[in-house]
Amino acid sequence: MPKQDPENVLTTTEKTKARPPSYLEDDTQGLDLLDPIEEKKLVRKLDRHIIPIAMLLYLLSFLDRVNIGNAKLYGLEEDLGLTGNQYQIATSVLFVSYVIFEVPSNLVLKRFKPSRYIASIVALWGLVATLTGLTKNFGELVACRLLLGLFEAGLFPGLAMYLTFFYTKRELALRIGYLFVSAALAGACGGLLAYGIGHMDGVAGQRGWRWIMIFEGIPTFLMGIVTWFVLADDPEHARYLSPREKAMVIARREKQAGHTTSAEELHWKDAKKGFTDWKVLAFGVAQVSHN
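^ that's the sequence the OP posted. Answer follows.
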């Protein structure tokens, strides 16, 4: 009886791990060459289910971040007794926690399900944004702004990473661009929304700025709850995709240049290279100087 090469012998457990999901066994036929028309239909379907949610989340993020400017017009400074540069401090301090926690938030995302993580930070910053309308002094306002920056820090990098689960590298730029479009929409509509809510000045004995914070924070909190249920963690768990479509998304991802299983994992050596790369540091300096 011929001797078997130990390296070619797989245990039952290893065979099970190596075996692809059932829908991949049945539906990967013919995926070596993806049909361009079928692929375009798939991308349009992904856009319909992913992009509206991503754009709405980023719109709410931008709205909750900048509504303090509108709140100032409706009595925030007088109500809280802000003096000197306290308003400017309260406005700017958000970006301290935002910058500090942006990278750690992205690293944490690799350890948790995207639907759970993104939904949680959205609900938390929505809660903080709502409670900002109940603050009584400068210290409480600063605390809320710091927490707002902490929770919002993970959204943009989280969404950018999430999109890589479904789209190819060539398709990502346009989808990231959609997020910036939503930020522009928030800037355009935020003032009009604040103007309308500001007419509630005096209702229930509260100043208009408080109602602006409350009514712009509540939708974000509710959207966080909705996101928990509607955001798919990855193509394999996307209920809106058929088995063949799931296989196509995975095939598209695996056909990309440089794609490996190791590339999807977190390696601290790679993170260190990013922190010490002069191009990354120069880009950071340019961004800070620009702002």
